[in-house]
């Protein structure tokens, strides 16, 4: 059994210990210490990382009362100096205590039960048994939680047996019958928990709800505490400052200026769309004016396949034609027809494009193909043009 010192003092980050087991694991090693302050992954909280004799400890887990420290190399000495990445540890303590405050506050004001807890590198979340959490509720809960943080309430931890635990106003029922570790936030919450926590709520710093989303009939609440909340604010402040400068605005006028900008962009996009339609219609009319037969061919350096499809649609609405269009911009080819010729566009594409390194297919009346290089695309276009022209004289 490893002595779990992180329960006695979660603030210790440097200590000496003794290796009691050293187990090769693939190309790494599992180290068991006689005592450890490294917290093993569990209860939604990730494991600590750090070093043993300056060798990196990447992961810590518990199994059958033993705590295993995963390392790249084996320490040479039996007595070793251990060091935790305390910045990460303290961040986890802030998030975990913040989670208790958030869950307890949802439970107190809305009877929402916390069903899941996740603490990752990028975000922390809880699932609350409420089908809807409105912005008004978020604001209220945030205010209540931060009031508790600012009051700097004591956070206590202690062990109870099952009978003693039953006498406490627990927010959740314990999953074990003995050595039940209780985390009590004075006057706020009683909850069985195996994680590490700060001594007083003031150390959480601040709690900010980032977003909410529906999750299997419940609501997932994403939030940040302490250092992470500060870093999140700093990033968003930089974004807002850049936008303010870009739009010659401030925090009070930025949204209106962005909304006006988006309206203007949408209006210009609609204008461009209409102009493109006019250009495409003009192109279709030009193709037909210059056509001497029922096969219409066009190749374009700067037109997208969507524009070529629209040209084809306009051409086929003006009479019975075979249309072949090439987009050199996207390295694609399109063929369509509404004639009485015995032509299956999909089969024709499949039989011809493979000769030029292309891939494609389609239906009897239209088909597409894509090519690796422009030369093959142009050769295939000319080959299809010759085949289609020959149909007129068949």
Features of this protein?
394 residues; alpha+beta; Elongation Factor Tu (Ef-tu), domain 3; Threonyl-tRNA Synthetase, Chain A, domain 2; Diaminopimelate Epimerase, Chain A, domain 1; 3 domains; six-stranded antiparallel β-barrel; five-stranded mixed sheet; 9 helices; 20 strands; 30% strand
The geometry reads as elongated
Measure the end-to-end span: 91 Å
Find the CATH superfamily of the largest domain.
Answer: Threonyl-trna Synthetase, Chain A, domain 2
Task: Give the low-confidence spans.
Answer: none
Chain-averaged pLDDT: 93
> What fold name goes in the CATH topology slot of the largest domain?
Threonyl-tRNA Synthetase, Chain A, domain 2
Q: What is the string of SSEs from the N terminus onward? A: EHEEEEEEEHEEHEHEEEEHHEHEEHEEH
Please tell me the total number of domains.
3
Largest sheet: 6 strands, antiparallel, barrel
CATH architecture of the largest domain: 2-Layer Sandwich
**Range of helix content:** 25-40%
- Strand pairing plus helix content: what structural class? alpha+beta
